[in-house]
Amino acid sequence: MVVENMGLDHVAIKVRDIEESVAFYRNVLNMEVSDRIGDRVAFLRTPNVAAESQHHEMNITQMSDAELEALEERGERDLDLHDFAEDLPEDGPPMLPTTGPIYHIAFEVPDFEALEAAKDGLQEQDHPVYRGTGRHGPGNNFYLYFPDPDGYPIELTANMEDAPEEGGRPARRWPTEPETWNVWHDSEELKEE
Ligand SMILES: [Fe+2]
After folding, report:
1. Would you give the DSSP letter of residue 75?
2. Model-level pTM?
3. Which of 45, 55, 80, 165 is deepest in the core (most CB within 10 A)?
4. Ion ligand 1, residue ranges at CB < 5 A
5. Domains, the chain, with CATH or none
6. Cα–ligand 1 centroid distance for 65 (angstroms)
7. Residuewise pLDDT in 10s, the chain (193 residues)
8. What distance in angstroms lies between residue 64's CA and the mean position of ligand 1's atoms?
9. Peptide bond into 133 cis (omega under 30)
């Protein structure tokens, strides 16, 4: 062991428009601003994290003008998140569209019903939903995926199985097939629990 790691603490992302992102994480994901640095950085927390006296779990940093110009030159500054939803492949591993190397950021919700409620709420706002609800093989968790304003996929997850240290099953290598990503793939099986 090199590091006495106590767990993932926070994630920092660069965004096209910090105010739009703060509004999204506030209004959709029920987060609040803990602090700001000028008009370039906002630190965000969920209610659970606030209750544990932790300052933040996300850092949202405004892209610089040079970074925005680089996006502009590549035709990637203005996004239509609905376009991405239409690009989802029909077969093969159900990968998510994303606008950068961050593949997704996951937040825990209480149960499957919370995922379904989130899906309804997003659809009422005409916000695209990428995948779900579904259930992953590894972790056995329920999921829902949708993009944040920069196209970084957000995952909502519930009922993750226990780790081996807590009585869960030992690590295994899963096959690269759609059922690994979603155990309900092509199945009529309905969710229980
Ligand atoms: Fe995930």
Report:
1. T
2. 0.91
3. 45
4. 106, 155
5. 1-76 (3.10.180.10), 79-193 (3.10.180.10)
6. 31
7. 999 999 999 999 999 999 999 999 999 999 999 999 999 999 999 999 889 889 999 999 999 999 999 999 999 999 999 887 776 666 666 778 888 889 999 999 999 999 999 999 999 999 999 999 999 999 999 999 999 999 999 999 999 999 999 999 999 999 998 889 999 887 765 555 4
8. 29
9. yes
